[in-house]
Structures are given as structure tokens and as C-alpha cells.
Design a protein that fits this description.
This protein is an alpha+beta fold. It is built from 13 helices and 26 strands.
């Protein structure tokens, strides 16, 4: 592909579409975009998306609807990022998004029909391309609307609590390998067929054992196919590159209004919330919408739970489509090149359990009170700590027989459904400890960040602690709400220490008659890679050992002064 490729035009009754329009970056690399213009002469504000998934991907048109944007008076530019599909260059995830974002915004603002003002929108990776462009400060960029996007890549993208996120580091990276192989072997059909065949076998084999390949930190399939990975390995080698390729700790450099959308079961749910709070702390106008959604599905049924039609992103509680809400916001922020009216910074939360949208003015909610529920030796979960020392709990963790991933915030292969799922099989395992309250006498709302504080010990040099909050209904069915993991290394095996597990945030009402439950274990595979309990680095560890795990282990066991507990942000009764 070269810069001499001619852009093609197509007209509909309501817009003009120009395909593969070239834009030359500062190093001479040509990136290509499709440009959608309303019928007429303009000028129009520009909505820009920069993505690695293919600019003509059908799901893109369904989710972001260029025709609807044209009807609202926007010109839309959708660009393949460097090294992807129609764009030239080499695919190096995250590396060029700041400089290419700057050059592309300036180019888009100068296109025929543009009024010189640019806003950006998109989800996941192309939420991050917005943040990177905003950091580069092109003068024409006036507003961004990142959706389901991370903040700190070591809190959901590459790792979580020190454990590797196999869904993004493995699944996502391998799926992107198809375009890389097609570009590499475009003149050699036999090599292309062989390469794609091998890649497909690896992807289709992930759920059947492929995820278990070792070492997890240097996943063998990338070397087999000579493919770039999302950045986990590189981040360990080049921490400066990792810091420069993310928005984390740099929000104060972005002086733009933002509109952020996330989902309680999204793999980047906390990242969306952290981005919002950082922008609010920096004094920037920012809006937040959090639905009961996953990373790729903004419908009204998530996992086993139907949250009602109002939960769907096409309705948002009769407010209209979420994309329409973004268009309204863009018309206020870039409609004539200047903000038409101040952005009040709305917060819109979907409260699960009662399945209602609620408008707020802040996040986190100041009226939520952190309340401790204590783990008791008889499997109870109580507001009261143990009055006297109680016997510790223990289990055996075998990395070769890990607790299987069952629901949650996932981006794995299709065999692993995200969202709230029945936990019966998980809770029947001997390596999962379960602590449960008595049936609640009144509705109890948890809205905010959840954490578990565990006083625990392992007999090896390293292990993981996983904590999961569940809602147990009146029929005894337990479904996951939110969870987290922390990877620990021990100076003295067998010695008790305090470990804090960040379960991220949620908003849910545990209904009267339901029970609150906490699971404690040491794995959730293949969501997170297995700790082999040897203390060896993840990029070289291939040998596993069985670990003996103890909760509340101490000289006096359940010490009332050092209780293991889950901390829930409880809302006052309505």
C-alpha cells in the first residue's frame, strides 16, 4: 500500500462517504481513514475515531452510527491506526498513538467541510487513542468521549494486583495477529494459509488448555507466530515506554471536557471510574455513565441476569440511546467550535438489584459509609468482629487444578461468559472458602469501591489471594458481583501477614431476604494466570508446587485486633 491510493467516494441520500483518505504522519507513514460528510457544504464539527479493529467493522457502524452522526450535523472520520488494515507502517500496540493522534487531529480539522473543531469518541483501545491524542494537545481537539477504557494498564489491561490478565495479553493479542499475518504473507498464499491455520488452531485451543501454556509471562504462541503482544512483556523491559503509553498519572495534562461510559462488568470498569475522578480532581468538566454492561455488550441481559429494558444502551432509562447522549454532549462542546454551554458534569449510575438509573453529582458518593463485615470461623460474615480467638480456616491450592473462571469482568474466548453467573460449582470446591451473612432484614445498597482485608499465610515464597463478593438470592443461588486478586511474595513462608484485595467498584442493592457472601480462594483461571507458588518470575516459571493456605493464621488465630474482613461502602437507607 502506498500514499498514491485514490480515495473512493460514495453518496447516500443523507451523506457522502469517502473511503481510504490518506493522511501522512510526521515520519512519512500514511494512515487511511473513511470520511462521512453530511450532504451540503458545511462547515461541520468533526468526530474522529482511531482504531486497530478495521474502520469498516460492522459492529463499529452499529455502535457508533456514522449516519446518525451525519444527521446530527457532524462530519465523521474513522481511521485505521498505524500498521492495521488499510494504513501503512508496522503494528506496535500503544507506541505511536500520541504522535499519530496529534498529526491526525490536525489533518482532520483541515479536511474540506470541517469547521476546525474536532471531538474524539470510541471504546477500549480507541478510547485510549483519545487520551493519547489529548495528551499531545493538538489545538483543534476540543473534547473526548472515551468508553470502557483503562487508566493504569497495570490495573486491568496487562495485570491486576500483580497477576497477568490473560484475556487482554493473550486473547486480544492473538486475535489481532490475523491482520499481521495477512500483511506479512500477502504475496505468498501458501505461507498465508499455513500461518492463519496455525493461528486459528492456537486461538480455538485456548479454552481447551491453551491458556495454560507456560511461561505465562512469555506466552509461547507469540514466538511461534512472531506476533507483537499488547505490551505486557515490553512494559517489564521498558518501564519508561509503559509510562508514556498510558493516561495514568497524566490526567492533569489534559485540559478538555470528557464524557466517559463504563460498565460494572467491564474489564476496565475501575479504569473508567479512575479516569473520571482524576479529571474531576483536576478541575476539568467531566461526565460519567455506568451501566450493568460488559466490555462488548451494552444490552439489558448480562450473564444470567435480565436488568430490564431500561438498562439497555438504546434506552438508558428512557433517556434515549447512549450514542445520542454523546452526540448531544458533543453539540454542546464542539458544535460551533466553542462550548455552547457549560458542562455540568453529570453522573449517571445504574443501581443493580433494584435495576434503576440514578443521577448523582459525584463519584465516589460521599454519603456511602465504609462498613466492615468480618469473616468468622464458622463461615459466617458478620458486622461484629470475633469477640475471642477463633480457629483458622485453611485450604490447599494446586495451580494444576485452579478454580475455573465463572463470570465476572471478562474478555476471554466465547466459552467464558462475562457477567453475574451461578457460583454453585465454584463454591462446592474445597479450595474456595465461603462466608455468608444472615438473610438481610432490609434492602442494603453497596455503591462504591469494595476491598477485602485478609490476614493470611502460605507455606511457599509466593501465592495469590482472590476475593469475590456475591449476592445470594432467596432461593440460595449465589451470583458474583465483583472480585479482585493480589499476588504476594512472602519473606517468611508460613507467617501471617495482612493482604488487601481490591475488588474494584460496584453499585447494587442486596434485597431484603438476600444474603451477602464473600468467597476467598487463590485462583480464577484463565481470567488471571496461575501463581505457581514458587516465587519464580512469570516470564520464566514453568514448575508448580501445591501450597497450603491459611486464613486468619496467627499465633492467636482469629485475633479480634486483626480481623479479616470485607469493607463495603453502604448507602444510608433511602
Amino acid at each position: 500500500m502506498t500514499a498514491s491510493r485514490h480515495a473512493k467516494e460514495q453518496y447516500t441520500a443523507e451523506m457522502q462517504i469517502e473511503f481510504d483518505v490518506p493522511a501522512e504522519m510526521r515520519d512519512g507513514t500514511v494512515l487511511r481513514a473513511d470520511v462521512y460528510r453530511p450532504v451540503g457544504t458545511g462547515p461541520w464539527p468533526v468526530l474522529l475515531m482511531r482504531l486497530p479493529y478495521g474502520k469498516q467493522m460492522p459492529l463499529l457502524a452499529a455502535a457508533f452510527d456514522p449516519l446518525a452522526a451525519a444527521r446530527r450535523g457532524f462530519m465523521v472520520v474513522i481511521q485505521d491506526t498505524r500498521g492495521r488494515f488499510a494504513s501503512d507502517g508496522d503494528w506496535e500496540p500503544l507506541t505511536y498513538e500520541e504522535s499519530d493522534g496529534y498529526d491526525t487531529v490536525r489533518w482532520a480539522a483541515a479536511l474540506p467541510g470541517s469547521n476546525g473543531s474536532v471531538g474524539m469518541l470510541g471504546a477500549g483501545y480507541f478510547g485510549n487513542t483519545q487520551w493519547m491524542a489529548a495528551l499531545s494537545k493538538p489545538p483543534e481537539l476540543k473534547a473526548i468521549a472515551p468508553m470502557v477504557t483503562w487508566s493504569d494498564p497495570h490495573d486491568g489491561l496487562w495485570t491486576r494486583g500483580g497477576a497477568i490478565e490473560l484475556g487482554t495479553t493473550v486473547t486480544w493479542s492473538l486475535l489481532h495477529g490475523a491482520d499481521t499475518l495477512m500483511r506479512r504473507h500477502r504475496t505468498d498464499p501458501a505461507a498465508l494459509v499455513a500461518g492463519l491455520g496455525g493461528l486459528v488452531r492456537d486461538v480455538e485451543g485456548l479454552a481447551g488448555g491453551g491458556y495454560a501454556q507456560l511461561p505465562a509471562g512469555r506466552f509461547p504462541a507469540f514466538a511461534r507466530h512472531d506476533l507483537p503482544e499488547l505490551g505486557y512483556e515490553r512494559s517489564r523491559r521498558e518501564p519508561d515506554w509503559a509510562r508514556s503509553s498510558t493516561i495514568a498519572s497524566r490526567h492533569h495534562e489534559v485540559d478538555l471536557p470528557t464524557f466517559q461510559i463504563g460498565g460494572w462488568y467491564d474489564i476496565f470498569s475501575q479504569g473508567t471510574l479512575d479516569n473520571f475522578t482524576a479529571m474531576r480532581s483536576a478541575g476539568r468538566p467531566t461526565t460519567l455513565v455506568m451501566g450493568p454492561w460488559t466490555h462488548v455488550d451494552q444490552g439489558h441481559v448480562t450473564g444470567d441476569v435480565n436488568f430490564g429494558f431500561g438498562a439497555h444502551s438504546d434506552f438508558v432509562g428512557l433517556r434515549g440511546r447512549s450514542i445520542g447522549m454523546q452526540f448531544d454532549w458533543f453539540q454542546r462542546t464542539i458544535g460551533d467550535g466553542e462550548a455552547l454551554e457549560p458542562d455540568a458534569g453529570q453522573v449517571l449510575l445504574f443501581v443493580m438489584g433494584i435495576n434503576q438509573w440514578r443521577e448523582e453529582t459525584e463519584w465516589p458518593l460521599c454519603r456511602a459509609v465504609d462498613t466492615h463485615f468480618h469473616l468468622r470461623a464458622d463461615g459466617r460474615l458478620t458486622p461484629e468482629p470475633p469477640p475471642v480467638a477463633e480457629q483458622h480456616e485453611e485450604f490447599t491450592y494446586d495451580p494444576m487444578d485452579p478454580v475455573p473462571t465463572t463470570g465476572g469482568a471478562l474478555l476471554l474466548t466465547d466459552e467464558f461468559r462475562p457477567g453475574p453467573l451461578d457460583q454453585t460449582a465454584v463454591e462446592a470446591r474445597e479450595d474456595v472458602l465461603v462466608f455468608t451473612t444472615e438473610p438481610l432484614t432490609e434492602d442494603t445498597e453497596v455503591t462504591g469501591r469494595v476491598k477485602a482485608v485478609l490476614f493470611a499465610a502460605t507455606d511457599g515464597p509466593s501465592t495469590d489471594w482472590v476475593a469475590r463478593l456475591c449476592d445470594v438470592d432467596e432461593n440460595g443461588v449465589s451470583r458474583n458481583v465483583t472480585d479482585g486478586i493480589v499476588r504476594v511474595r512472602t519473606a517468611t513462608p508460613g507467617e501471617s501477614a495482612e493482604h488487601v484485595v481490591d475488588l474494584w467498584s460496584t453499585s447494587i442493592v442486596f434485597r431484603a431476604g438476600h444474603r451477602i457472601r464473600l468467597q476467598v480462594t487463590s485462583s480464577k483461571f484463565p481470567r488471571w494466570d496461575r501463581n505457581l507458588n514458587t516465587g519464580e518470575p512469570e516470564d520464566s516459571a514453568t514448575t508448580a508446587r501445591v501450597a497450603r493456605q491459611q486464613i486468619f493464621h496467627d499465633q492467636i488465630f482469629h485475633d479480634p485486633a486483626r480481623p479479616s474482613r470485607i469493607v463495603l461502602p453502604l448507602m444510608p437507607p433511602a
